[in-house]
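Re-run with default settings, no changes from the original entry. Doing this only to confirm the output is reproducible before filing.
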Amino acid sequence: MQSTDKWSCGITKVLDTFSGKWRLNIFWIISQNDGIGFNKLRNQVPEITNMMLIRSLNALLLENLISKKLTGSKAPFHSEYHLTDKSRELLPLLLELNDWGNHSLLKP
């Protein structure tokens, strides 16, 4: 297995970070609903399993693209997910890619 720390191309690292079916969707939902809780996030991606949501969130947390805030005075705590400063820098680039894809790749 190749370590993602060894990528020499930044684009490849970004694509690897958002690889899979769910991560980019989850990132997008969090960007649109800053401070979203686990259950609300789960409801916005109805096809995803709890385990896959947890794995995807953990991958985004590991890359420091989202942060997790626990609220409440006693267990069970409520989790809220937010974009980090690092991901706020990335968001405009992803929006441009979205626009380019809509205009260039979705034309008949």
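DSSP finds five helices and three strands in the chain. The beta strands are 36-37, 66-71, 78-83.
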